[in-house]
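pasting for ref
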Amino acid sequence: MSDTKKQQNFLQGTALLAMATAIVKVIGALYKIPLNAIIGEQGFSYFNTAYEIYNVLLMISTAGLPVAMSRMISQASSLGHYNQVRRVYATARGIFLALGITGSFLMTVFCRQLAAFQEQPDAWAAIGCLGPCVLLICIMSTYRGFFQGQSNMLPTSISQVLEALTKLIVGIIAAVGLLKFTGSIPLAAGGAILGVTASCLLSAVYLFGCFRKSFKDLPITDEGVTSFGQTAKGLLVIAIPITVGSAGLQILTMLETKLYMGQLLNLGYAQGAADTMKGIYNMTQTIFNMPCAFITPITISIIPAITAQLTLCNEKGAKETEESAARITGLISMPCAFGLAVLAEPVTALLGGYTGEKLVLATKLMMVLGFAIMFNAVVLVTTAIMQAHGRAGRPVLNMFLGGLLKLVTVYILTGNPHINILGTPIGTLLCYVCICALNIYSIRTLLSEPPALVKNLAKPFLAALVMGILTWLSWFGLKQLGIDSRLILCALPILVGVVVYCFMALKLKVITHEDCLLLPKGEKIAKILKL
């Protein structure tokens, strides 16, 4: 397969997942924003506490194995060894099921103990209702790892949209119903979580249907295959370092919640007030996670693409894919980072419905998290590059160091009465800056042909900086004119930002002629953009 064809496959897979992500994020906003209004900041904080514990078990269950599956299936498929593809899937399925059953059991049976550990005893219902999802996600991950290893991103994309729609419908109905009939905010938060469980069940059924046909259509080959033991060892060698890094970071995040909730209570805040502050912070985290989710399709797509190129000893093609991924990452994340930072007040006022002191707090939190977006995006893509090169251990160390810095920062700053919960996003920002710097350094020193990451990120950074300044000026001007409509104060500056960023991106040639040629109708696009 030619380099251009491989690059096309990578970009097409990324585009497909990005399109699905865009739809999922719109649906997610339609889910979480009204949910925050329905169950309030306290209920929303219970909802997110359940997710924090769930994410730890989820990362232990699924963080490394899908990547390991994707890499090993990509290697076997590149060589036409489809018997080995079957063996990798069967082995991974057994490991996934064992982890999923264990994780679901722990989260469901010990929901009250876990809630108490997080300094939020009323979160038990949400934690218990989310428990079955660990097993369902493990089942889904076996199918997604199988498809992604063959660079087939369509089933993953469709299943994500199905999940989001089901979560929206079932979650909102269950939350409203339970709040109406019981009047209990903890039970209403648990009802909202039921939407997540139902969505995972439907998605698993859909993926099974796709998998059954695709698995049956695999070509029959006669090559020998490794034993289940050897295959499991190969999967775990790749998966364990990734899992340790991802789960470790999630454990640190869970400990972070315990730390800042404990510090807020030590400062004299009542449980309800601390829960409310956490709920506002969780809402700003929801907004923060939206742009970052668009980077995940890039990381999912580049791992099998780079692995296939390295398997065929094509280091130049791998480097080109990595640099293309860096450009796309910067193109997406930089304007989102500056935009959310400078428009923190109108965005949180519109999406969170905050006023008064709550709006002041949300604005400060969102401003800091906004700048963290660009560093988080670079962390995601650089981690994926090292994983594709079989250097999964170094990102683990880097994440651990960044996580420790975060915990220390959060503990010190949130214990200061003048800073309190604002210390949490500051810790997040410093964490990602640290990991970002360490990852870039690691790539330069570990890879024989390292991609020019900083060079490919510099132009989108400059374009976003100019955009951020003019966007803030447009919002400030509207405020001076006495306009108080939340929608106008948010929409018009965003429109200015889009126009300015597109102009600057073209002027600075953030998108290259070669990038355009890899897209459908690329020649025409390049001519229109005068590249």
